[in-house]
Amino acid sequence: MTINEIRTKYLEFFEKRGHTVIPSASLVPLNDPTTLFTGSGMQPLIPYLLGKEHPHGARLANSQKCFRAEDIEEVGDNRHTTFFEMLGNWSLGDYFKKEQLRWFFEFLTDEIGLNPRNLYVTAFIGDEKLGLPRDIESAALWKELFAHKGIEAEEVELGSQEDAARKGMRNGRIFYYDAAKNWWSRAGEPENMPPGEPGGPDSEVFYDFGATDSSQVAHDPKFGAECHPNCDCGRFLEIGNSVFMQYLKRHDGSFGHLPKQNVDFGGGLERIAAAAHDEPDVFLIDAFAEIIALIEHFSRKAYDDSRYTRSFRIVADHVRAAVFMLGDGVRPSNTERGYVARRLIRRAAQHAMKLSVGDKDKEDSMLVRAAIVTIEKYKEAYPELDGEHAYEEITGTIRKEEVRFAQTLEKGVKEFERIATHEATPRGFISAEQAFLLFTTYGFPFEMTKELAEERDISVDENGFKDLIKKHQDVSRAGIEQKFKGGLADTSEKTTRLHTAHHLLLAALRQVLGKHVKQRGSNITQERLRIDFSHGEKMTKEELAEVERIVNEKMEEGIPVVRTEMAKDEAEKLGAEREFGAKYPERVSVYSIGPLEKAFSIEFCGGPHVSNTAEIGKSGAFKIQKEEAVASGIRRIKAVLQ
Question: What are the tens digits of pLDDT across the range 122-136?
Answer without folding.
Answer: 999 999 999 999 999
